[in-house]
Amino acid sequence: MGSLEELAREKFGELSAAEERVVRNAPNGTEADCSDLGGGDDPAKADTWPEARNVRAELTRWLCVDSAARELVDPHGVQIRGARITGELDLSFTNVLFPLALLSCRVEQALILQGAKMPLLSLEGSWTGAIDADGLKLEGDIVLRNGFHAEGEVELPGATIGGNLDAEAGTFKNPNGNALTADRIKVTGDILLRNGFRAEGEVRLLSATIGGSLSAVCGTFKNCNGKALSADRIKVTGSVFLRDGFHAEGEVRLLGATIGSNLDARGGTFKKPSGNALNPDGTKNETALNAERINVTGNILLSNKFVAAGKVRLAGAEIKGLLEVEDAWLDALVLESAHVTGPFFWRNIHKGNKDMYPYFPNKVWKPSLDLTDAKVGSLADEKDSWPENGGLILDGFVYDGIGSDAPTDAKTRLDWVGLQPDELGYLPQPYEQLIAVLRRMGHEHQVAEVGIAKQWDMRKHGNLGWWRKFRSWFLYFVVGYGYKPWRALGWMAALVIVGTLVFSVAHSANVLVPSDQEAYTEYEKSKMEKLPRSYPVFVPVGYSLDIIVESGIGKMLSNSLAPNLPLDLGQKSHWRLSERWPGDRVYWIFKVYSLVQEIVGGVLLLLLLWVAGALPAGLIKKD
């Protein structure tokens, strides 16, 4: 068998200067550097390169698949720098036994690697057209970095990469379609789309599996009318880094993603699709970052000058660490039905245009926050970062506590609850949750104010009928909805005092007389001045109390709560109202008052026992 160069000349005839270098270096495993053959080093200007730098695609393929030729190639593989690859390079369904490196080359036509197998593929610094590598299998890395430039779609769906997918500082341009398609790709190492990476067109990583991390630090993703980065259902063992100079114009999607460590978007910039981009349901797409139903073992970090011109959607997210939204500009955060095991930080949120962000100098920021049915470990917020009125939804929001630096006084927290939209009507859960947390934190003195505010809100927005509104007003004035029981004692004392005065007048007017007939006869004979010695004298305050205690409600409560406890002071049983003559109007005045005091006193007694907790559960409810 002759040398590789002899076999090549026998197969292809005359060789260019670049081809000669390729077939001479391949047996040694060294790089065939063609950049000194004239025309400069920039593959973007390969049209000015001389023909001496041409390497036929069919020769490259021959080196990879011809049994005689590839036996002469060193295990280090074929390494070509600064050449122009002419023709279509088709390595589909081939099994290449050594690495293939086309470095700073210009690949003029399509590169087809569908179903191919090889140890490593490097296109570092090269300019290519479209690449079809569906189902590509690599034992090591695929290198598309440091000046790599693709005009057309780079397709890697279903590929298996044993090392990294390294596209650091690479450029992928397909403005009217997908710039990089890597659906269902499996990468043992990292996917690196960072440090100068640029894509014009959608980058797709749907259902990808990554053994390491996904890093897009300082990467630019631009697809203004649609999705800039689609990574739905992606599974990442490590972290996802969309931080420190990450810039996306178009929706970034991580729906249903699973992340083993953190989603770190600190210092990242996200911009919703522009123009008339639509959602599948026909509505306008206002979402900058969509990570609904994401599952994150670590933290989600949206801080350190995080920017989202559009909605950030984390509905249904499962976050086992903390959620940090701090030092951020954003239009809206949707946490509906999300679960955050750790604390939720919402601090230093920039509003209005006082803290203008350079990318959006004229934008007025009005952040909103939807916490419907969300659950967090603790809430760490600040008043200055709360949304404007109507921009906060708290219905179903559950939090275990409030951070030490966050406001915990009832007045401020009620202002917070009051930021919800009026059109939602009366929502009891935010008040009940706040009451439970204040009690858990030992702030029992704050509970009454929240409970009363809840009842006021129910009366204002609860669509109550006239009777329930009356009942609400009554309970407020009498016992402060059960939170101010001293009011009932005050009303009771006032009622007893008024009754004492009224019944004193009734006694003086001879309308209140002894109940016993013999005592009454003697009393009457003495012109209402003397009683039998053993007969109880009239005590106005005692009679006033007896009217209340001996009322129908009083007797019912006495029989059910303390049947063996005597509550009769002996006044009402020994003294009665009596007509002085038929049709005595004064008698009826005192009789009506007595009935009123009996009813009102019984109700006050009922309320006092309710507040004291002596009534059966459910008979009367605070809320």
Please describe what this structure looks like.
The strands form 3 sheets. The chain has a 38-stranded parallel sheet that branches. The relative contact order is 0.04. It has 13 helices and 43 strands. Mean pLDDT is 88; it is low at 614-621. The longest helix is centred in the last third of the chain and has 27 residues, at 585-611. α9 (486-508) runs antiparallel to α13 (585-611) and α11 crosses α13 (585-611). The protein is α/β, with parallel strands linked by helices and 623 residues long. It is rod-shaped. The protein starts with a helix and ends in a 12-residue tail after the last helix. It is 26% helix and 26% strand.
Key phrases:
623 residues; alpha/beta; three-stranded parallel β-sheet; 13 helices; rod-shaped
Main beta sheet, described?
38 strands, parallel
User: How many alpha or pi helices?
Assistant: 13
Helix content: 25-40%
Distance between the termini: 96 Å
Low-pLDDT residue intervals, each spanning 5 or more residues: 614-621
Q: What overall form do the CA principal axes indicate?
A: rod-shaped
Mean pLDDT: 88
The total of beta strands comes to 43
Beta-strand content = 25-35%
- Radius of gyration (Å): 42 Å
Structural class: alpha/beta
